[in-house]
């Protein structure tokens, strides 16, 4: 509080990753303090440095970082997930494409210590197929095989948000802004992967083959990315998410509904 001349703090949330406070400067401007928990400080620190590098262009502005505390812009607008769940999914898809174009704009002096994308996929490659339900093991084999094929044909690398989905994008007077990046570096096609399986809680929407193909069309056309590679990373990421959820004891029903249609779209691309 003293370091940044803050006059008031209000606890907002505690997650398994951080404590978040809304703070005031001289009783006028709101800002946020995000205090990282030690178990995720390395990953969240990468994300905070990436936010600094974005300099507020398509992402929340980070004013300063000190130790495990991030002093940043306060955003309290609705999420893009709210818009998609309310029937504005086509608009949301275009908004994501526009946002990624801003995030991937060339900038000098990229941040150090970003996680290599292939390392991010280690859980997919190391998971025992027997951890998957018997009826879904072919889905595991296919998603892992596609991931290996994608990494065998590397693309020019760029810094990646790494967890860009509808509910990590907030509205503001500056437009839609990304929050909570993972801080990766790798193939730009991966940046769109999580959008295919979101927004959260809308499984019927995200599993719709027409929606999957429409999203691939928009992302490919607006960002100049390869359509089949976009769908490949979407399928591979869905398989990776199942592996993470199995390890954490979380439900996997949503991804098991989505993944077959992502694989089908990939095959037809």
UniProtKB/TrEMBL annotation:
Origin organism lineage: Bacteria, Pseudomonadati, Pseudomonadota, Alphaproteobacteria, Hyphomicrobiales
Pfam family membership, one: APH_6_hur
GO molecular-function terms, A-Z: phosphotransferase activity, alcohol group as acceptor
Gene3D superfamilies per record: 3.90.1200.10
Lineage: superkingdom: Bacteria
Listed SUPFAM superfamilies: Protein kinase-like (PK-like)
Gene Ontology BP term (one): secondary metabolic process
Organism from which the protein derives: Devosia ureilytica
Annotated protein name in UniProt: Phosphotransferase
Record InterPro entries: Kinase-like_dom_sf, NH2Glyco/OHUrea_AB-resist_kin
């Amino acid at each position: 509080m003293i370091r940044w001349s803050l006059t008031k703090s209000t606890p907002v949330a505690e997650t398994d990753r951080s404590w978040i406070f809304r703070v005031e400067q001289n009783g006028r401007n709101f800002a946020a303090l995000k205090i990282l928990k030690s178990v995720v400080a390395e990953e969240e620190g990468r994300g905070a440095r990436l936010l600094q590098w974005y300099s507020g262009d398509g992402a929340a502005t980070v004013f300063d970082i000190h130790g495990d505390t991030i002093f940043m812009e306060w955003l309290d607008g609705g999420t893009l997930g709210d818009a998609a769940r309310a029937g504005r999914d086509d608009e949301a898809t275009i908004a994501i494409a526009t946002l990624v174009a801003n995030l991937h704009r060339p900038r000098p002096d990229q941040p150090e210590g970003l996680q290599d994308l292939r390392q991010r996929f280690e859980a997919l490659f190391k998971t025992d197929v027997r951890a998957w339900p018997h009826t879904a093991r072919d889905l595991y084999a296919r998603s892992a095989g596609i991931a290996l094929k994608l990494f065998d044909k590397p693309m020019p690398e760029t810094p990646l948000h790494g967890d860009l989905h509808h509910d990590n994008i907030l509205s503001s007077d500056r437009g839609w802004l990304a929050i909570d990046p993972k801080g990766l570096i790798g193939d730009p096609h991966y940046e769109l992967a999580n959008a295919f399986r979101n927004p959260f809680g809308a499984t019927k929407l995200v599993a719709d083959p027409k929606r999957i193909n429409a999203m691939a069309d928009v992302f490919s056309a607006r960002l100049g990315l390869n359509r089949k590679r976009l769908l490949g990373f979407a399928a591979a990421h869905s398989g990776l998410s199942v592996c993470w959820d199995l390890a954490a004891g979380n439900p996997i029903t949503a991804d098991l509904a989505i993944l077959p249609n992502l694989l089908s779209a990939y095959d037809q691309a």
